[in-house]
Amino acid sequence: MTDNSNIKADFWEAAWTNNRTGWDLGGPTPALLSLLRSHQSDLFPSQQEAFTVLIPGVGRGYDVVAFAAKPGVKAIGWISAKPLGVTEAKKELARANLSTDRAEVILADFFEYTSAPFNVVFDHTFLCAIHPSLRKQWGAKMAELTKKDGYLICYMFPLREPDENGPPYALSIELYLELLGESFERVLQRDLEVSELPTSGMDRDKLGKQMISLWKRR
């Protein structure tokens, strides 16, 4: 089993309990919605009828709802925090009237989680939430869970000089290349547009730069 002290499950459960949910954007990630529009034919080619998507560290599940709105998509959100996080995410899926054949949220140890690989995986600040000692395992697990020729979307935050603070822990473009370069080809990396910057939750600008990237599984 992975050392849960390094995932800080109790930390995240306490955050849910005490409503310290500064990561909560109040809706789907704006930069993700832009990417789904601009790269829909790559992510979900019309000649294919069914797709699976995984969102680790899914928060309240807004992005699960966004993916599940796409035709033929089954979206799964994963949470390592204890049951309260799952309960909150399931409430969001219920509000969207999504059945379990379209969307679900599971509680599991991410690094022990086994599944057939997914067409698309979306990491929205999950990497920055785990202890730096788990980063190589994160890269290996992303490769394991992404189908060949499938895609990994990374919301890259916080990009800043290394320090001991966290979570969220400091990340860098070079770190992503180190962790993903062997198994993935980077096909897109860009700054967020002004319209894509979060307007609720924590003040992310104080913590580091935000970018979004798209990686194709080799």
TrEMBL record:
One GO process term, biological-process aspect: methylation
One Pfam family named in its UniProt record: TPMT
Lineage: superkingdom: Eukaryota
Gene Ontology molecular function: S-adenosylmethionine-dependent methyltransferase activity
Annotated InterPro entries: SAM-dependent_MTases_sf, TPMT
The entry's keywords: Methyltransferase, Phosphoprotein, S-adenosyl-L-methionine, Transferase
Identification of the protein by name: S-adenosyl-L-methionine-dependent methyltransferase
